[in-house]
Structure formats: C-alpha cells, structure tokens
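sorry to bug you again but im stuck and you know this stuff better than me. below you get a single protein, a line of residues and a line of whole numbers that encode the local backbone shape. mainly i need to know what kind of three dimensional shape the backbone takes. anything you notice is useful, everything is just below:

***
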Amino acid sequence: MLFFLTCFYMVVFYSQPGGRIPALGVIRFEFVLGAAILVALVFLRSHLVFANERMNRAAMVFGGALCLSFIGAMQTHTVTDAYPVFIELLKSFCIYLMIIGTVDSKEQLEKFIWVYVFCMLILIGEPFLLSLQGQNFKPGEGGILRLYGVGQFAHPNGLGIHAVTTLVLIYYLFWHYRSVIIKAFLVSFGLVCLRVIMLTGSRSAYLGLIILVVYFFLYSKKKLRFVIACFLLVTVLNTFVPSVYRERFRSLKEVTTVVQADARQPTSIGGRWALVRDAWNVFLEHPIFGCGIDSFWRISHEDKEFGTTGQTHNLLMQILAETGIVGLAAFVFLTTTIWRTLKHSRAILASLHKEDGHIYMLMNAFMVFLLTQLTIGMVAQHSLYSYVWWVISGIAVVSLRITTEQETTLLCLEPSGNAHAPQPVLTSNHGI
C-alpha cells in the first residue's frame, strides 16, 4: 500500500492537482498525502529509511550542506528568499525517503520507473498538446516564440532539459522491451520530446541534446550503425524544423566570441557569461558557505559591484556562489557516491550473468542520465536544487539493495542447493 501511495504521490507532485482544483489546494492535498506517507514510513519502515548505507550518508551530508548555506544567507540578509526554496528542497528530499522506504523488489522498481515515465509524459505532454492549439507560447530573445511548460516546470529551459533527459530512459527502455506496443509508445513519446525541445527555443536544451547524443555514441557497442541511424534521423526531422528554430540552434556558435571578448556582449549568451564571472566574484566574497540558497540573483542585483541580474545558468557557479566550498564538497560526495553505487549494482549483476535484465539496463540508463544532467549543468543550467538528484539517489539505493539481495540469495543456495535457504535481510549495510 505504501508503495502505491508513493507512486500516487509522484503523479500528484508532477501534475499539481492543487493548482488545478481549488478544493484540493485549500486542503493542501499534496502536503497531507506526503506527510501521511512519511509518518507511516517512520513508524513502519524506519529500518529502510534510516539504514546505515553510504548513499544515505551522502544524501544526508548534501542536505546538511544546504542547511549550512543559511549561514551565508544570514550574512547577506537573504534568508527570506532562501526559505521558500528550502521548503521545495525538503519536498524533493521526501521523495528520496519515499523511494528508499517503499521500493524493495525488482518488480516494484520496474513499476516505479514506468510511473516516473508517466510523470514525464504529464510534464512534457501537456505543453505539447497546448502547442498544437497555439497556446503557451511567449516571445523571447529576437522575437522567437518559445513554448512554456505548466505549473512549477513552466520555464522553457527547464522544460527542454526535462525532455532531453527523458530521452535517456526512452532510448534504453526501447531497446530493452520487445513488445511492439511499448516500442510504439516510446517512439511516439520520443518524437514528442524532440518537438518540445525544438519549440522551447532553449539553447541549453539544444546543447543538452548534442551532449546526450555524444554519450549515446560513447556507450554504443555498434558505433557505425549508431552514426548512420543518427544521420538519417536528423536528415528526416530537419525537414520539419522551421527556419527560426534552425537559426536559434546555429546561434550556439556565439559562445566562442562571447568568451573571448573583453566587454560584455549584448546577447543572451553574453549575459550568461557575465553571470558566470559575477558568480565567481560572489564566491570570492563568501567562499565557505556561499551567499545562501537561491540568493545569487538578489546579491548580483543589489550590489553595484556585480552588474547582472538573474540566476547563474551554470551548476558549478551556482554551487560555489550559493553554498561555497562546503556545498561543493557535499555535492561532489553525493554525485560520486551515486555513480559508484550505480556502477557497483551493475558489477554485481554482471557477476551473476544478468546483463540482459531490467535493473542492469536501468543502471546503464541512469549512469548516462547522471552524466548528461551534470554536463548540461556545468555548461548551461543551474540545477542544484532540482529534484532529479534525489530521484537518482533513491533509485541507486534500492537498486543496490535488490542486487545485493540477489547476490546473497545465490550464495546461500549454491553450497547446499537448498531452495529453502534463509533469505537475506534487506536492511543490511551495503558497502560500496
């Protein structure tokens, strides 16, 4: 029951029914549902939620570093701005707790992944349907119409990046399942993602798509076939791309000119480079704990020394400017632990000769997912407070638990061949 409630909460989190149905908003339905699940987990499954595991410790360290950034927020008088974002971070952390507290079998993990795909279908599919009606477009730089999302994922850059990272799961799920119906759905959803990426006019998303293709190529076992397939796909799809979005894509070449120029360039890319430089100056002013969660835009706007407005548009600069060295160390610990956990699970499955299984496929998918998210962040996006780090962390935890259980079960059965050998306890400390 708790597992299905967690899946239901995921759908609620992404669809935001409280903003669509006033009555649900009044009773704060999402908060009540989430609080009920967490209370039940604490009393019924605390051995899973508070298990002594490296991934759990990394998540706690990362959360602690974000809390310490309030020291910087107090120094810069931006606690009022930091507090609402911190509440959103707590919601994301609760999703992590729900995942590690309820997903405890490979069947449940598979179901959860499909629930996540469904959530992405809501997030990406709704603006896609609105675009067919000519809605949710707003003019951006150069007068180009950009497609916006709905609710908390409205910004076109964020919408485009979500579509890019969703393509990772679509790609790996497509090659894993043999069902024609599933393959047809995934192809259709993939085309929807590509159209949404195009309509957002987000150069971050365009760059992210290039980065993703590079990672697909590097992880592909049949590289020549992959290159030919990509060439044919681009050739066909390019005929459906309006010229205004082609020009938007070609404008990425401005990056070299902007970086080399001494003066700030009067373009969006020029503004982003100025933000990166100013974020570095903010970090030098507040090197230990940063200036506070989501406070860079306030500091750069009010202090004449820093002449820009807006977010950093760079993950590394966001970490340094807003959480300092403490935040950087915690984030590196978190992401490297995620990577090592995913890799360890994959290694266990390989030793069990289960490379064709669902979990092994997921480990490959989320390793590419993590690399893509990190690379896009380092070059084009401020995503430190995104929920994705908590979702990937949760999936890494439960995957290692499940694979370790499979390994232990096999070791218990091998010596005696007894099918009734004692089953391993899921709450053991899974080292990495």
Observations:
- Residues 77 and 291 are 9 Å apart (CA to CA).
- The longest helix spans residues 315-351.
- The beta strands are 137-139, 145-147.
- The two ends are 31 Å apart (CA to CA).
